[in-house]
Specification:
By secondary structure, the protein is an alpha/beta fold. Helices cover about 40% and strands about 20% of the residues. The protein has a seven-stranded mixed sheet, sandwiched between helices. A five-stranded antiparallel sheet has the order 11-10-12-14-13. It has a two-stranded antiparallel ribbon with strand order 4-5. The radius of gyration is 25 Å and the shape is globular. Aspartic acid binds near residues 8 and 168.
Length: about 425
C-alpha cells in the first residue's frame, strides 16, 4: 500500500491536478493522498498559504483584506472551473472569509489552504475527504501527540479504500486547529504512511530526487538513486537542500521507505530513502557531498592537558552558559579544538575567550575563523581502502589546504575543514574524484 503526498508546486493549477490524477490512478496500490495548499505557478507568484497569512495579518490589524482574499478566491475558483467543478468551493470560501472577519486564529486561517485543496481533490477524484482536525492530534500547547495521532489516523483511514487528507494541520482535543511549521505537510504525509504501515511513502514534489552535490556548484551533479535515512540526516545537517530528515521521522521510525518523485516527470524513478543499507543494491563509495560556510574554531593548547580531569567539561560549560552548542570537537593530546557557528560566537567572542581563559588557564588560545566544512557522506566510505588518501589527493591537486579533518564515529562521513573561499573548489574536486563517471 502506498501513501502519496503532493506538495504545493504539484497542485498549483488545474493542469497540475490532472497530473496528480494520472499518478494516483496509474498504480492501484496508491490508496491515500495527502495534499499541501496550491503553491506558486511560476516564480513571482504567491503561495495560497502566504495569501492566507496576509489576509489574517490584515484582519488582525482591522485593515481591509478584500484584495488579497479576492486573489485567493480566484485561484481556487479558477482551478475548480478548469476541472468542471464550478461552485463546489464557494460556500467554503465564504465561510473562510467570515472566519477571518470574526478573528479566527492564525493557525485556523492558515490551515484552510490545505483544507480547501483536499476538498477539491475529494470532489475531483470522487474519493472520501478525511479532515486532519479529526485525526492529527496536538496538545493545547501545539505539540504533536504522536501515538494518539497514529491511532486516530489508522482507525479513520482504514474505513476507506481510497481517501484524501489535508496536510499541515491537526487539532487539539477541544477542536482548536494547530499547524506544523511551514512545509509541514511532509510530516502529515509521513504520519499517514506510518499509521497504516504503508509499504512506501511517496513524496511528490518539483524536483527529480536528490542530487549528489549542489547543482549550483556542480551543474551536472548526478541524482542519488537510493540512500539511507542516516545518510540523509548527514547530508541535510551539512546544508544539502534535501528534504529534512526530521520531516520524515514517522516513516523512518516505522521502517518505511520514502520515495522522492517529480510530479512533472513521473517516469523518473527519483530518489528512494531506505531504512537499511542492506536494501541498497550497489553501494557507491560516496553517496553525496555537502558543504557549509560559517564555522570558527577555538583552539586551546596546554601542556599535560590530557591528564587534567574535567578540562573539556569546563570549556563546554562556558559555551553552554552562552547558549552556544559545539558543532565538532577535534582533539589532540594537549590540544582541544571546539568548532562553533561563527555568527553565534561573534556575539560574545571576547567574553567567551576570557571565561575559558579563567576556567582552564590554557597556554595558548586562538580562534580560526571563516572555515567551511565539506562532508563526504556514504555508507560505502569505509568499505574501500585508500578513501581518505583519494580525498586528500583530490583537494591537494587543486592547491586547497585542509585545516582540519574528522571522521564521524558512525563511519558515515568524512568531514574536512577548508577556507570558506575554497568551499566550491573542494566540492568540485571531491565530486570529480569519487562520483563523476
Ligand atoms: N502550505 C504550507 C506551506 O506553504 C505547508 C506545506 O506546504 O507543507 O508551508
Amino acid at each position: 500500500m502506498i501513501v502519496a503526498k503532493f506538495g504545493g508546486s504539484s497542485l498549483a493549477d488545474a493542469s497540475c491536478f490532472d497530473l496528480v490524477r494520472n499518478i494516483f490512478e496509474s498504480d492501484y496500490d496508491r490508496h491515500y493522498l495527502v495534499v499541501s495548499a496550491p503553491g506558486k505557478r511560476a516564480p513571482g507568484d504567491v503561495k495560497i498559504t502566504d495569501l492566507l497569512l496576509d489576509c489574517h495579518h490584515k484582519a488582525q490589524m482591522n485593515q481591509p483584506f478584500d484584495a488579497e482574499f479576492g486573489v485567493l478566491m480566484q485561484r481556487y475558483q479558477e482551478i475548480a472551473h478548469n476541472l468542471s467543478l464550478d461552485g463546489v468551493l464557494d460556500q467554503e470560501l465564504i465561510a473562510v472569509k467570515e472566519a477571518m472577519m470574526q478573528g479566527a486564529t492564525r493557525d485556523f486561517i492558515v490551515s484552510r489552504g490545505e483544507y480547501l485543496c483536499a476538498k477539491l481533490i475529494s470532489f475531483w477524484l470522487e474519493i472520501p475527504f478525511i479532515d486532519a482536525k479529526d485525526v492529527v492530534r496536538f496538545d493545547h500547547s501545539g505539540k504533536l501527540e504522536l501515538h494518539k495521532t497514529l491511532t486516530l489516523l489508522r482507525q479513520e483511514m482504514l474505513k476507506y479504500n481510497k481517501a484524501v487528507i489535508p496536510g499541515f494541520y491537526g487539532a487539539d482535543e477541544s477542536g482548536a486547529i494547530h499547524t506544523f511549521t511551514r512545509g509541514g505537510s511532509d510530516v502529515s504525509g509521513a504520519l499517514a504512511a506510518a499509521a497504516v504501515d504503508a509499504d512506501l511513502y511517496e513524496n511528490w514534489t518539483d524536483v527529480t530526487g536528490f542530487r549528489s552535490a549542489d547543482p549550483r556548484i556542480v551543474p551536472d551533479a548526478s541524482f542519488i538513486s537510493s540512500l539511507t535515512y542516516r545518510e540523509l540526516r548527514e547530508l541535510s545537517y551539512m546544508g544539502a537542500s534535501v528534504m529534512h530528515e526530521e520531516a520524515v521521522f514517522p516513516v523512518r521510525m516505522a521502517g518505511i521507505p520514502t520515495s522522492i518523485r517529480n510530479t512533472k516527470n513521473p517516469q523518473h524513478p527519483g530518489t528512494l530513502i531506505l531504512p537499511s543499507p542492506r536494501q541498497i543494491g550497489k553501494i557507491p563509495t560516496v553517496t553525496g557531498i555537502a558543504g557549509k560556510r560559517g564555522f570558527s574554531t577555538i583552539i586551546l593548547e596546554k601542556t599535560q592537558m590530557n591528564d587534567e580531569v574535567g578540562f573539556g567539561r569546563k570549556v563546554l560549560s562556558v559555551l553552554e552558559r552562552h547558549h552556544i552548542n559545539f558543532e565538532h570537537l577535534p582533539t589532540g593530546i594537549d590540544a582541544l579544538c571546539v568548532m562553533v557557528n561563527s555568527q553565534a560566537l561573534e556575539k560574545c567572542k571576547q567574553q567567551i575567550l576570557d571565561e575559558i581563559e579563567a576556567a582552564v588557564h590554557p597556554d595558548t588560545i586562538t580562534v580560526q575563523e571563516n572555515i567551511a566544512l565539506v562532508a563526504c557522506v556514504g555508507i560505502g566510505l569505509f568499505k574501500m581502502h585508500g578513501t581518505i588518501a583519494r580525498l586528500f589527493t583530490a583537494v591537494a591537486e587543486q592547491g586547497i589546504m585542509v585545516k582540519t579533518m574528522f571522521q564521524a564515529p558512525s563511519e558515515l562521513s568524512i568531514i574536512i575543514g577548508v577556507s570558506e573561499n575554497d568551499l566550491e573548489a573542494a566540492i568540485k574536486a571531491i565530486y570529480d574524484a569519487f562520483i563523476r563517471e
